[in-house]
Amino acid sequence: MAEVRAELRTHTQVLNALRHTQLEHVREMREGFAKQGQEIFKQGQEMREGFAKQATGMTQITALLTKITGSPDIS
């Protein structure tokens, strides 16, 4: 009976160690996903800013062409 208890205790220790390892991996994965989410959000902001600058530039170009040609329709 003592051998069975000792073996059961060993199995329990192994399972607890495995649980600890799995919990650590889950934590690391969540941190990784959070970092990726932040990076994607940052890239989205940069893209919106870039498109806003491009739209402003296009508006200025259109205004200059309208002024040069004297016509609001440059087509």
What proportion of the residues form beta strands (DSSP E)?
under 5%
Q: Specify the overall morphology.
A: rod-shaped
Please identify the structural class as seen in this structure. mainly alpha
Q: Summarize the helix and strand pattern as letters.
A: H
Number of helices: 1
Largest sheet: none
* Poorly predicted runs of 5 or more residues: none
First and last CA, distance: 95 Å
Got a strand count?
A: 0
The pLDDT mean sits at 93
Cα Rg: 31 Å
Multimeric state: single chain
* Helix coverage percent: over 70%
Task: Please provide a written account of the structure.
This protein is rod-shaped. The termini are far apart. It is mainly alpha-helical and 75 residues long. The relative contact order is 0.05. It has one helix and no strands. The chain has one helix at residues 2-69. The longest helix has 68 residues, at 2-69.
